[in-house]
Amino acid sequence: MANATIYVIPFLTSFLVSVVALFCIECTRRRFSSDVVKRFGGIAIVLAFLSAVLIDERLVMTAPIIGMMIGAVAIVVFGVWDDIARLNWKIQAIFQISLGVLVFSFGMRIASFPIPFFGSVFFDTLPFGDVLGFALLLAWIVFLINVLNWSDGADGLLSSLSIVSFSVIFLLSQKPEVYQPPIGILSIIIVGASCGLLVFNLPPARLFAGTSGSFFLGFALATISVLSGTKIATALLALSLPAVDAVWVLCERLRFGASPFHGGDSRHVHARLREIGWTNYAILLLYALFTVVVGTIALATNVHGKMIAFGCVVFGVTVFLWWLHRKISYKEIK
Fold first, then answer.
1. DSSP string, 234-287
2. What is the pLDDT of residue 116?
3. Torsion angle, CA of 241/189/176/113, rounded to 10 degrees?
4. Peptide bond into 114 cis (omega under 30)
5. C or N terminus of the chain, fewer CB within 10 Å?
6. Tens digits of per-residue pLDDT, 216-242?
7. How many CB atoms lie within 10 A of CB 300?
8. Helix (H, G, I), strand (E, B), or coil: what is residue 113?
9. What is the rounded distance in angstroms from the CA atom of residue 112 to the CA atom of residue 126?
């Protein structure tokens, strides 16, 4: 890996700031015996990210990166508010869409979209292409925020998923045919912050990312994958298990007349695995190993290969979810 040393300081800065901030949050939680403070881990993640970005002289502050940083600050404010007041899903959805509008106003764009065996479709060649690109950007950001947010239901799960996913983006940015040091720096910074969270988030978890942490990690992965030249296929493949799970749960909620965006139920994979007797460590190991495997596939294939792999993964995960649903239904009947 060329010039690997340029990533050491951002990683260490982010990790150390995250650990120190999380330690302070834990001390506050113990002093006041507050369950709400236990969900303030995201404050440390964002603080670590902003600190590492601001002190790195190699990172040029482009408009999209500035927009991403403003979004991170807004997420902390909103996330703390949500963790205290438990806002309804409509307010959360409006805020998530606002984040997409924010980064779009700072120049972030999805210029094209790959179609297997047909090549990439460039939005500037299509009627209303700007509108389509804007809509796709909003949908991508909202989708990933919710995928990561809904994954924060088992100890260590969100932090481990983030470590692997951002590591995949980092390693992709180091490939000779890609080589994007700014993307590498941004990604490794979040890997460092997530490693710090994992120290306090392993089962039994002492602190959680909360709304601010899960929203920021989803927002960051969505925006960095776009900044890196629309690496949506890579990010989507790396998060294929929680992504397919999110779509499955959305469909189930619609089927039973529940709000499609209201989280906190027991329909997700991690909740159902726990229901049939899996431990938190077993669930964490399954997600981590699966993400490492599909992340490796994402690094080893081109865009078309990623899309084909994603299709195979979608089929496999769907079968697994169907089996899990049947197993729980049979258990309830007995």
1. HHHHHTHHHHHHHHHHHHHHHHTT--TT---SS-SHHHHHHHTT--HHHHHHHH
2. 61
3. 50
4. no
5. C
6. 999 999 999 998 776 788 888 899 999
7. 10
8. strand
9. 10
